[in-house]
């Protein structure tokens, strides 16, 4: 029996940005030979791993600033940096980010408690399953569950950013199905400053979004990817798959 197709926020946003990029990332295996390590992925993955341990109530060994710094050194990923100088600068920035995060988290008693870290949720949507891995979920005294998403490259975030973020909407939808009747909120934390903003969907917004994802999912799964003609976009300049698109006779760079 064939496994049910899955879609995730990453797959959805990739498709919306460029269906051809979706092809090379998720459909055509030849694309994997063109993928290059990127420093911002390494940096973000390192910070996420350390914050996972810091907020994991089952990990008793990472509570203080010193323990967090030790975990940071253990977790550091150095792939994708262009030079030793760039790596050293990023390493220092990461230390500052984590030190500030720990200070803010321990400055006063928390109103909430963390119940999940790096947890994957799944919802069957019929023709496919929607998957999403959340950085953290906190529970508040009134029963509200707050999804927390870390953004390692951001310095600011507004409520509108959260409200219009596809990934945050997907996470809210997943938790609404996992915990029916429970108030769900989503928060983005800009790690470079510690600024954050939160938003939540109404029942009507959630229902509309679910229908949008269902229709979009059908489109993604039925697309004839090998027949697509690549079209130049600004994102092409930094895309790993540009050499592949250049091989297409109808691809024209502006």
UniProtKB/TrEMBL annotation:
This is RecB family exonuclease. InterPro entries: PDDEXK-like_dom_sf, PDDEXK_AddAB-type, Restrct_endonuc-II-like. It comes from Fimbriimonas ginsengisoli Gsoil 348. Keywords: ATP-binding, DNA damage, DNA repair, Exonuclease, Helicase, Hydrolase, Nuclease, Nucleotide-binding. Residues 6-246 form the PD-(D/E)XK endonuclease-like domain. GO terms for molecular function: exonuclease activity; helicase activity. Coiled coil: none annotated. GO terms for biological process: DNA repair. The keyword Plastid does not apply.
């Amino acid at each position: 029996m064939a496994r049910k197709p899955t879609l995730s926020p990453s797959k959805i946003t990739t498709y919306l940005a460029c269906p051809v990029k979706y092809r090379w990332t998720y459909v055509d295996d030849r694309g994997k030979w063109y993928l290059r390590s990127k420093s911002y992925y390494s940096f973000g993955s390192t910070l996420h791993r350390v914050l996972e341990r810091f907020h994991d109530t089952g990990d008793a060994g990472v509570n203080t600033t010193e323990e967090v710094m030790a975990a940071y050194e253990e977790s550091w990923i150095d792939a994708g940096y262009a030079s030793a100088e760039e790596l050293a600068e990023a390493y220092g920035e990461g230390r500052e980010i984590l030190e500030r995060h720990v200070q803010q988290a321990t400055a006063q008693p928390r109103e909430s408690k963390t119940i999940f870290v790096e947890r994957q949720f799944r919802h069957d949507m019929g023709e496919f399953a929607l998957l999403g891995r959340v950085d953290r979920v906190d529970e508040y005294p009134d029963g509200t569950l707050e999804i927390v998403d870390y953004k390692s490259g951001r310095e600011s975030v507004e409520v509108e950013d959260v409200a219009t973020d596809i990934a945050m909407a997907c996470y809210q939808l997943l938790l609404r199905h996992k915990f029916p009747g429970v108030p769900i909120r989503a928060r983005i934390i800009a790690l470079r400053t510690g600024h954050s903003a939160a938003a939540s969907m109404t029942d009507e917004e959630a229902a509309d979004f679910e229908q949008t994802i269902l229709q979009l999912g059908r489109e993604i799964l039925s697309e004839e990817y090998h027949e697509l003609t690549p079209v130049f976009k600004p994102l092409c300049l930094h895309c790993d798959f540009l050499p592949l698109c250049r091989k297409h006779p109808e691809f024209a760079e502006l």
